[in-house]
């Protein structure tokens, strides 16, 4: 009996971490009811307002430019596409991307090609600021690759590839991603996505190349920070996973070792390194890797498969009492966790906003939170997808304050309830908040369902291990000799590279030794 770490499964999950959602048509319906009153004034007034908006835009008075362009619609409704395009560009320049999302969508749905092409110059920036779940449907329906200039086309390639993936067409997705511009801000993320698709479909050499390119591009990003560092480390981990899949275990180990222990990614791949040792029958090294998760420094990590692999390692050494002990601890530890997840989901069955708040609260807690449910939620609330929704929610508050500041600096701007450009933006942002909380809540709900299903699967694996352990123990008592080839293999003494540490675990944890422990257990398979 051998359980396996599936790199193909990881690749497929990583490409489908986003889920298909219905277009937020309500966003348009509600926002349209807020549109300024339309008059029958001449086109001359509208053109004057638009000309003034362009002058203000060129002089970097972006909020004032947006207000003038907005008021042009009052003068002549027929100028709405052009006016909304200028409002979009001005608000983006003012750092108000959440507010700009309404006007961006309105421009896309107008059918006016010149206006559409104008706003597509900021499509990539809007995509990452607002999130693909809101914009994807409109970009796919109302634009084509020809509408984009070479620099902004990456936005279309991403949304088209994403849509193809959600519809199960990996070949089509790869087609869209076949010509990624390395000059794009999003190039590293797109290479990571393309690599994951290659890995999922069996193109391991192509995946390895793309993960390597992703690492290089992420390292060279101008805005180097935690997100870029994590992306770089995830692409390094991707290379190691491919080498593991190709059964180049020593090479995979060397690549895994390039990931800094300071990175959150390292806490995930330590488990994969343990699998790498397991595949080489270095069970003592496997157990050494896994015991690091018992350290107070890694107490925040939630991964039931760690205990499954620990039990399987003891089983491979024919140390049945130890395997049985791990299985019992597993049942005690995770039974309550499964019930907590079930209770949270049932309590908030129709309350996506409450689930978003739960995820947001978990993300705000220290990683070392003592609450088991927070430890579970750490696995997804700190992901790039959920982090983007949290950031968007924060951006809304910032934009609301900035809008009030811009308005107060212009005494002629109306601030009365229900009147003027600032009030219109406030209503847009209020609805935008509802959309963010619904999407973020759906993400939390789906993630909890996935991990609950995974927990049940791990229970089944642990039960299988216990049954196998009992079968072997019985046969050992009855025959006093090895029964099958797997048992006869026993343990392989771990080899240490010149650049590799080798610490014997003595029951104490030292942060600089985490991940480098090796047990010294004797196999009982020949007893």
Task: Give the key terms.
527 residues, mainly alpha
Characterization of the model:
Strands 1-2 form a two-stranded parallel sheet. The chain is built from 24 helices and two strands. By secondary structure, the chain is mostly helical. Residues 15-40, 413-418, 483-489 and 496-503 have low confidence and may be disordered. 68% of the residues lie in helices and 1% in strands. The two termini are 20 Å apart. The chain has helices spanning 7-15, 25-32, 43-58, 62-75, 80-93, 97-108, 113-119, 123-130, 132-142, 153-166, 170-176, 187-200, 204-219, 226-245, 249-256, 264-279, 283-291, 304-316, 320-347, 352-364, 372-381, 384-408, 420-479, 485-489; strands at 503-504, 517-518. Helix 9 (132-142) packs across helix 10 (153-166) and helix 12 (187-200) runs parallel beside helix 14. It has a domain at 297-497.
């Amino acid at each position: 009996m051998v359980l396996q770490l599936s790199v193909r499964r990881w690749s497929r999950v990583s490409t489908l971490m986003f889920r298909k959602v219905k277009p937020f048509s309500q966003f348009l319906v509600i926002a349209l009811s807020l549109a300024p009153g339309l008059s029958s004034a001449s086109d001359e007034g509208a053109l004057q307002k638009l000309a003034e908006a362009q002058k203000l835009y060129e002089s970097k008075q972006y909020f004032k430019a947006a207000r003038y362009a907005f008021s042009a619609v009052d003068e002549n409704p027929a100028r709405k596409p052009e006016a909304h395009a200028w409002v979009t560009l001005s608000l983006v320049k003012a750092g108000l991307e959440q507010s700009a999302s309404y006007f961006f969508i309105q421009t896309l749905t107008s059918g006016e090609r010149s206006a559409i092409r104008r706003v597509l110059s900021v499509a990539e920036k809007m995509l990452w600021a607002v999130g693909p779940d809101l914009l994807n449907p409109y970009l796919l329906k109302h634009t084509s690759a020809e509408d984009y200039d070479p620099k902004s086309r990456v936005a279309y390639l991403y949304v088209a590839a994403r849509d193809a993936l959600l519809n199960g067409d990996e070949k089509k997705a790869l087609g869209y991603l076949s010509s990624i511009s390395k000059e794009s801000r999003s190039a590293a993320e797109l290479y990571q996505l393309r690599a994951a698709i290659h890995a999922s479909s069996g193109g391991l050499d192509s995946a390895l190349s793309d993960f390597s390119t992703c690492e290089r591009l992420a390292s060279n990003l101008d805005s180097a920070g935690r997100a870029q560092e994590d992306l770089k480390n995830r692409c390094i981990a991707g290379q190691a996973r491919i080498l593991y899949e190709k059964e180049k275990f020593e090479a995979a180990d060397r690549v895994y070792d390039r990931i800094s222990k300071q990175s959150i990614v390292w806490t995930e791949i330590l488990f994969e390194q343990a699998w790498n040792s397991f595949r080489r029958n270095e069970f003592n090294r496997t157990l050494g890797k896994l015991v690091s998760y018992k350290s107070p420094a890694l107490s925040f990590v939630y991964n039931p498969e760690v205990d499954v692999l620990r039990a399987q390692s003891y089983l491979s050494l024919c140390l049945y009492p130890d395997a049985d002990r791990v299985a019992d601890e597993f049942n005690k530890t995770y039974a309550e966790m499964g019930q907590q997840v079930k209770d949270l989901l049932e309590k908030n069955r129709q309350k996506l906003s409450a689930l978003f708040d739960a995820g947001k609260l978990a993300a705000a807690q220290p990683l070392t939170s003592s609450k088991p449910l927070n430890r579970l939620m750490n696995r997804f609330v700190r992901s790039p997808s959920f982090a983007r929704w949290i950031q968007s929610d924060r951006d809304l508050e910032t934009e609301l304050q900035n809008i009030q500041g811009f308005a107060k600096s212009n005494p002629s701007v109306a601030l009365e309830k229900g009147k003027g450009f600032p009030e219109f933006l406030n209503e847009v942002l209020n609805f935008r908040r509802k959309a963010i909380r619904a999407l973020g809540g759906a993400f939390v709900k789906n993630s909890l369902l996935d991990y609950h299903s995974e927990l049940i699967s791990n229970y089944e694996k642990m039960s299988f291990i216990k049954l196998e352990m009992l079968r072997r123990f019985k046969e050992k008592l009855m025959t006093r000799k090895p029964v099958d080839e797997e048992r006869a293999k026993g343990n392989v003494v771990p080899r240490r590279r010149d650049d590799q540490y080798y610490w014997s675990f003595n029951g104490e944890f030292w942060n600089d030794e985490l991940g480098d422990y090796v047990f010294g257990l004797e196999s009982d398979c020949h007893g």
